[in-house]
Fold this sequence. Notes:
Layout: H1 3-11, H2 15-26, H3 30-45, H4 49-63, H5 77-85, E1 90-101, E2 105-115, E3 119-126, H6 128-135, H7 146-162, E4 166-167
Amino acid sequence: MKKAARTEWWEGLPAGIRDEIDGYVLQGSLLGATRVIVAVGLVPHGIGVGTAQLIAHDRYLHYGDRVARAPESPLDLESLACRAAGCTGRVVAIEAVWDGDTVHDWFVRLLAITADPVGEAPIATVHRSTAERYLGEDEDCAPRHSAAVAAERAGRALAAHLAVPFHFASPDTPDDEAPRWRS
C-alpha cells in the first residue's frame, strides 16, 4: 500500500480508533499500534502486519520527537562495568550481537556472557542515536554502521577492563544470525 493510500485509509478511520492508535504510538508501542491497525483493517481492507507497521511508522514520523522513547543506554566504561558487576554468574566474555526492528532499524546489543550459571545478561543497546551521542556526531564511521563502531569500541573497553574476551561476529555487516560466542 502506497503512502497516499495509507493516508486515505487513516483519514477514513473513526476518530476514536485513530486516537487509540496514536496513543500507542505516543507511548512508543509499535506492537500495540500495529495490533489495533490489523484488528480493524485486516478483514475489511486486507491490511496485514507489514502494511500495519508502515501505517504505524507514518504516525511515528507525524509525531517525531513527541513519541516517548526508552532512555538510551550509557556506553561509558564506568556504567558498563557497573552493569557487568550486577550480573548473576561470573562474566566470561562480552559479546556484541545485531538486532533490529521496524522502528530502530539495525542496532547492536552488548551482552555479558556468564558462567556459573551459564547465561547472558544485557549490558547496553546501541541504536544509531546512542552511537552518535557516544562517538560524537562528526565522527565518520563509513562504510560501517555507527552502532557497530560504538558497540565495538565500548565492548572492547569493557572486556579489557574485565580481562575477558570480546566477540563480535559481524562488525561490518548487520547480521542477526551471525555465529554467537562459544567458550
